[in-house]
Design goal:
By secondary structure, the protein is α/β, with parallel strands linked by helices. It is about 50% helix and about 15% strand. The chain is built from 35 helices and 25 strands. A hairpin with a 2-residue loop joins strand 5 and strand 6. It is globular. The protein starts with 6 loop residues before the first helix and ends with a helix.
Length: about 800
């Protein structure tokens, strides 16, 4: 545990680090140098805490594998968890600096794309806070997720070199580096007992070097590690080629190794991209498997006890290859037979599914797997053969066998491999869990119902309420008589008693206004945008995908502008719509939706009829630090995905916890939010999952709906004609009317627009808006990550 540290001690430590590392004094140091020095001091405090903990041998350890860890900024988070925030802030101020300016120097650790990565970051915090010994594993991407720039009204992607400034947090551990092998051939060998041995020859080697980021739990009692794998070549330079003047070629082997960890999610719409993604995944799981097995042998000695002491948690299908890779290590390095190795693997690997979109369940071309990892391919073939026999025993030879095979139609189906091997498969909300059982994985559920469960996602409420919303945090502590809610989030429920208190309502509105003004400063700094802070902040911030239906919100906004032109004197509650979203670089439709919203925003924000009444702001380069400014200011939370498409969602939880009222569909975690909030405190609209399926079966015709709805006709006419920039969006309109409207925007528009109007009629009243804010915060404690991790520990990992 980290002891008490005064601001004077912190200042002395920072000044010492500036002198030793940068050869500068506190007076001459730049803001970036001050950030680096402060981060190093905090990292060293955590390192000392970790050293005090070791050697520690929890009976069972969790290994949380995720291709994404969207950590955001770590300086203030670690200081907060260690209980030294005041000392850090005071020390910087004593040095004549504005602490906020120093914190702004830290780049967001962009090791993720959205909810999956942010969830992993929240869970690492909760595991450390709850005292669960856990190691996070991922890739140390050099560039991470891209920086988003809006140029000519379109999204463009710029490389985000986050690691330069983040080196303060990363500790290279070269002593734990491992070798990962790609390609080559497998020569079969048989010993005198008739046992098969695989001899791997002709392979290419890449060195996986761990770079550790320490994670402090709240209170500083437990320090866990996020281990990020960096790829290096065993040969940094071919001296012969270099001496011959072949300078570029002499670096080829090094470059090909380093490209593995260059970027997060390289485009895979071509063969080389697919090859790189698959190479990333095997590099990651092979390094992780070797690391965990090595530590197990050092600690426990007997490889046969592996499953007693380890849970390997797969998050989405990206890390599925841990299954055959562990089999390879157990059989080829430790001489186990198939059955013995398989029993250990299936007792130690669990799978969390994060998507109900069948097209998002990874399938890799068979030839790529054979080419990149020939021994793993042999093992996958044997897993598939045995799995096929199991399926035939239960399903005879009907379609259910083919649908659930691991190798089928020359593709390797990763989710099916998880179903064959993992002792638990969980969804991330109750609705999602039911969809897995009754739809996506219904065949396997019919055979192994005990394999399936769900754990509703949660968020780090200490970060996403206490840290980012200090005004609300202070009020909660005052009303509840202390800071107990920080470790017992269920205590937020006691706020219900204050929902009718006029003084508390007034203070809630005052805090929200202050947060809006702080967000307005961010908008000016980030984008030069002047926000109307007297308007209601209506927020939709999440990854850009068609099923999340940012376009539906844009349709409603477009009609509001038309209404204001029809009747400039109409009674209209001033509102500012805030969007934040990145589209995958190769996702054409999503990028067109961003372009449309930017066109719409430009048109409305320069329309004198809309001045001080309707405003649209699309935050450039949405990221964790931007969310930390937006979420406390939000008053309306748009959670409007197509029912049955969102597995859970965590943005909805952050906004709810900070007092935003939700307008949404019965999808993902919205279902559980609605159960707690009811119609009085949440605004529901849209078709339910079963109603969508029924409408599809009956023959859904979006054009018929448009032809009977004058409002929709005017919106689509506006989109076809284009806005003030002259761009037409007829392609998006055609996709909705004539392309089948896959995500039911036309079907749900009328319900959505009517629900919006009903909601604004209610929340225009300051007193009622404050009551809704209090009730949303009061009911949000169940969505804390601490609760979710406690459920994983009890029901899946079997850790006390």
């Amino acid at each position: 545990m980290i002891g008490e540290i005064s601001r004077n001690e912190m200042r002395s430590a920072i000044e010492d680090k500036l002198c030793a590392r940068f050869s500068v004094t506190g007076e001459s140091a730049t803001d970036e140098q001050l950030f680096q020095a402060t981060a190093m001091v905090i990292r060293e405090l955590m390192s000392r805490g970790l050293a005090v903990e070791n050697p520690r041998h929890a009976e069972k350890e969790v290994h949380y594998m995720s291709m994404e860890f969207l950590m955001g900024r770590s300086l203030m988070k670690n200081a907060y968890n260690l209980g030294i925030s005041d000392a850090v802030t005071g020390a910087l101020e004593d040095m004549g600096r504005n602490a906020a300016d120093i914190f702004e120097e830290e780049p967001d650790a962009g090791l993720g794309n959205g909810g999956l990565g942010r969830l992993a970051a929240c869970y690492m915090d909760s595991m450390a806070t709850l005292g669960i010994q856990a190691t996070g594993y991922s890739i140390c991407y050099e560039l991470g997720i891209f920086k988003q720039k809006f140029q000519d009204g379109k999204q463009t992607e710029i490389a985000d070199n986050w690691r330069t400034a983040a080196e303060s947090w990363l500790v290279p551990r070269y002593e734990d580096a491992v070798e990962v092998r790609f390609g080559g051939q497998i020569l079969p060998q048989w010993d005198e007992f008739g046992h098969y041995h695989a001899e791997h020859t002709g392979y290419t080697t890449v060195i996986a070097v761990p770079r550790d980021m320490l994670i402090a739990g709240y209170g500083g009692n437990e320090i866990n590690t996020l281990r990020l794998w960096d790829a290096e070549s065993p040969n940094f330079l071919d001296m012969y080629l270099f001496s011959e003047g072949e300078y570029v070629k002499s670096l080829e082997q090094r470059t090909m190794a380093e490209v593995i960890t260059k970027v997060l999610y390289p485009a895979d719409d071509h063969r080389e991209g697919k090859l790189l993604r698959l190479k990333q995944q095997y590099f990651f799981v092979s390094a992780t498997a070797q690391d965990v097995v090595r530590k197990h042998i050092e600690t426990w000695g007997d490889i046969k006890t592996f499953a007693q002491h380890h849970t390997m948690q797969i998050n989405d299908t990206h890390t599925t290859l841990i299954i055959p890779e562990l089999m390879r290590i157990f059989m080829d390095q430790y001489g186990m037979g198939w059955d013995e190795a398989w029993n250990i693997v299936k007792d130690s690997v669990a799978y969390t599914n994060h998507t109900v979109m069948s097209e998002a369940l990874e399938k890799w071309p068979q030839d790529l797997v054979q080419e990149l990892m020939p021994r793993v391919w042999e093992i996958i073939c044997e897993i598939n053969r045995r799995w096929c026999n199991y399926l035939r025993d239960n399903f005879d030879n009907d379609d259910r066998v083919g649908n659930n095979l691991i190798i089928y139609n020359n593709q390797v189906h990763m989710a099916n491999m998880c179903l064959s091997a993992c002792y638990k498969v969980n969804g991330v909300s109750r609705l999602h869990g039911e969809i897995l059982k009754n739809d996506l994985f219904k065949d396997i559920y019919s055979l192994r119902p005990q394999q399936f469960t769900h754990v509703t996602n949660g968020i780090d409420h200490r970060r996403w309420l206490s840290q980012i919303n200090p005004g609300l945090d202070a009020l909660i502590k005052e009303l509840l008589g202390g800071d107990g809610y920080l470790t017992r989030p269920e205590e937020l429920g006691r706020l219900r008693d204050f929902a009718s208190d006029a003084q508390v309502r007034a203070r809630i509105n005052k805090i929200k206004q202050e947060n809006k003004e702080r967000f307005a400063k961010f908008a000016m700094r980030n984008d030069g945008m002047v926000l109307n802070t007297d308007a209601i902040m209506d927020v939709q911030v999440k990854r850009l995908h068609e099923y999340k239906r940012q376009l539906l919100c844009a349709m409603s906004i477009a009609y509001m502008q038309l209404q204001l032109h029809d009747n400039p004197n109409m009674d209209f509650v001033p509102r500012t719509f805030v969007f934040g979203a990145k589209s995958a670089a190769g996702y054409r439709v999503a990028k067109r939706i961003i372009e449309l919203i930017l066109s719409l925003a430009n048109d409305i924000n320069n329309d004198p009829v809309c001045k001080d009444r309707l405003q649209v702001y699309f935050v450039e380069n949405y990221r964790v630090s931007a969310a930390e400014a937006i979420v406390p200011a939000a008053q309306v939370s748009e959670q409007i995905s197509t029912a049955g498409k969102e597995a859970s969602g965590t943005g909805c939880m952050k906004l709810m916890m900070n007092g935003a009222v939700t307008i949404g569909t019965l999808d993902g975690a919205n279902v559980e939010m609605y159960e707690r909030l009811g119609d009085e405190n949440m605004f529901l609209f849209g078709l339910h999952t079963d109603e969508i399926e029924q409408l599809r079966r009956q023959g859904y015709d979006p054009s018929a709906i448009v032809n009977s709805d004058h409002e929709l006709q005017r919106i689509f006419q506006r989109f076809n004609q284009g806005f003030s920039d002259g761009k037409s969006y007829s392609d998006l309109v055609s996709g909705l009317i004539y392309g089948g409207d896959q995500y039911m925007l036309v079907a749900d528009y009328r319900s959505y627009a009517d629900c919006q109007r009903r909601m604004y009629d209610i929340i225009k009243n300051d007193d009622e808006r404050a009551r809704l804010a209090i009730m949303n915060t009061a009911e949000s404690g169940v969505f804390a990550a601490d609760r979710a991790i406690a459920e994983y520990a009890k029901d899946i990992w079997k850790i006390k």
